């Protein structure tokens, strides 16, 4: 049981460092649940089902978080784009562009941000502008 706790803490720490922890969704919970059940079965001595579930959870996790995986390529909705750009419910094109300019200047890789965050801000702008026009 201590091994399971250490594994869970290690995964949680890694996800927090990568910035993925705040984007936890039901798919992440399903992967974690599958891995935990597999780990428990393995620890109880089940030599087939436990490791099989762990392998499936690892593959599922890798496919979800790999570059181009479903976690990175899910379609962004309007509400998510509004939240990212910190805008109200019905912004005009000028407000969208101003919010984008303000946020990109903070998250751009040249200013200590990350390319992934800048891409997310750009995608939010594109989603809102495509629906504003």
Automatic annotation (TrEMBL):
Record organism: Sphingomonas montanisoli
Repeat found in the keyword field: no
Family as reported in the entry's similarity comment: Belongs to the TIM14 family.
Name this protein carries in UniProt: Molecular chaperone DnaJ
All copies of domain J, residue ranges: 80-133
UniProt keyword annotations, A-Z: Membrane, Transmembrane, Transmembrane helix
Major localization listed first in the record, in broad terms: membrane
Database matches in InterPro entries: DnaJ_domain, J_dom_sf
Any one annotated GO CC term: membrane
Membrane topology (UniProt): Single-pass membrane protein
Localization annotation: Membrane
């Amino acid at each position: 049981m201590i091994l399971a706790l250490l594994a869970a803490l290690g995964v949680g720490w890694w996800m927090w460092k990568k910035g993925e922890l705040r984007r936890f969704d039901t798919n992440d919970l399903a992967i974690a649940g599958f891995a935990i059940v597999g780990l428990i079965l393995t620890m109880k001595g089940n030599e087939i089902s436990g490791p099989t579930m762990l392998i499936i959870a690892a593959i599922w996790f890798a496919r979800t978080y790999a570059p181009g995986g479903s976690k990175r390529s899910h379609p962004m909705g309007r509400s998510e784009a509004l939240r990212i750009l910190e805008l109200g419910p019905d912004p005009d094109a000028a407000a969208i562009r101003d919010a984008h300019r303000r946020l990109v200047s903070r998250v751009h890789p040249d200013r200590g941000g990350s390319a992934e965050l800048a891409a997310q801000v750009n995608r939010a702008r594109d989603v809102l502008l495509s629906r504003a026009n």
